[in-house]
Specification:
0% helix
């Protein structure tokens, strides 16, 4: 996005650094646009016309030692705060981030295979496992993103995060986190490697069970790894992973809808995709996501696993600051329910960035 305006400011007092005045830059960027979406469930079809109006405001200043402090706010068309964060970039020492709605370290590993437009789960009514990678670390956590270092011609970056109270709620200035009735603390670790046309990474997250909780039978864990290869205009990618939600209770039937956050079983996912730049302005992609629910039932229950599979075809065409994009995504067994009707979502969007 291009900056709409850039203003030279003087940050005084405690604005960015105590008892010191430093030069700062302020910027406003954003996206606007229109969408048309259609969802077909069995023989029932629902259409909708929507709009986008996102505005990102930030202020950034460099201190005498070369470190940079940044604050950012993102507002969406619903007139609500989508995310806000502050970061301190310490040169070769890396960056420390604390924020609300930032997504934690896990946001760098959430469905990262090549695509022309959106992730497969966009528009789905079900909250998928691949979309919940490190979800409880998105708010109230301290994140560290190390510098990218060169190792045998490959760029390597380490990322880590810690939440003293893994309730996934924002903590404002001087406040304490809302208590989680399930988890005490949470920690996460990620690794990214890139070079020679290859991009790869691995991530793991653990939520520690609250000692007073009876709704979980142990710690919760999510993990994933991915690899993509770019050969000129074509990129192919593969990602796999799984999660143990730690939730205890009776096994859920294959013929019943499940919710990721409350389901008693485990989840596994596998994603493969290919994207191609047809021209300098046009890109297309195909992706298939398979998520398996494992009831983890004993021999007496014998409940079958359920596969939820979605296939997505996408395109994007850009003309300067204007972009036209769309997708068609078809999902079988939505909600990991073997009795559910297939769900097909189609979306066309016209967007403008500034």
């Amino acid at each position: 996005m291009n900056k709409l305006k850039k203003i030279g400011l003087t940050a005084l007092g405690t604005s960015l650094v105590a008892s010191s005045a430093i030069a700062a830059d302020a910027s406003l960027t954003g996206n606007t646009g229109y969408t048309w979406s259609s969802e077909e469930v069995g023989t029932s079809t629902t259409d909708g016309i929507g709009y986008e109006a996102d505005f990102n405001m930030s202020v950034s200043g460099e201190m005498d030692n070369g470190w940079t402090a940044t604050g950012s706010l993102l507002l969406t068309e619903s007139a609500t705060l989508s995310s806000s964060w502050t970061s301190l970039t310490m040169g070769s020492l890396g960056t420390v981030i604390v924020g609300n709605g930032y997504g934690g370290v896990g946001q760098a590993f959430d469905d990262v295979t090549p695509k022309a437009y959106e992730e497969n789960h966009d528009g789905m009514k079900t909250s998928t496992a691949i979309d919940n990678i490190g979800a409880n670390m998105g708010n109230g956590s301290l994140m560290y993103f190390g510098p990218t270092i060169d190792v045998a011609g490959f760029g390597v970056q380490v990322m880590a995060g810690y939440a003293p109270e893994a309730s996934n709620t924002a903590v404002t200035d001087g406040g304490v986190s809302t208590s989680s009735n399930l988890w005490s603390s949470g920690q996460e670790l990620g690794l990214k490697v890139s070079g020679m046309g290859i991009t790869a990474g691995a991530y793991a997250n653990e939520l520690t069970k609250d000692s007073a909780d009876s709704e979980t039978d142990g710690d919760a864990m999510t993990s994933t790894w991915h690899v993509s290869y770019n050969a000129g205009p074509v990129s192919v990618g593969y990602q796999t992973g799984g999660s143990d939600t730690g939730v205890t209770g009776a096994a859920e039937l294959a013929t019943a809808a499940k919710a990721y956050t409350t389901a008693t079983g485990n989840f596994e996912f596998e994603k493969i995709s290919i994207a191609a730049n047809v021209s300098d302005n046009m890109s297309i992609s195909w992706g298939e996501l398979t998520e398996t629910y494992d009831a983890q039932s004993d021999m007496t229950t014998n409940i079958a696993d359920v596969e939820m599979k979605s296939t997505s075809i996408q395109f994007a065409y850009s003309m300067g600051s204007m972009k036209i994009s769309g997708y068609m995504t078809d999902t079988d067994n939505p909600g990991w329910d073997s009795n559910a009707k297939s769900d097909e979502v189609t979306e066309l969007a016209v967007g403008f960035s500034f």
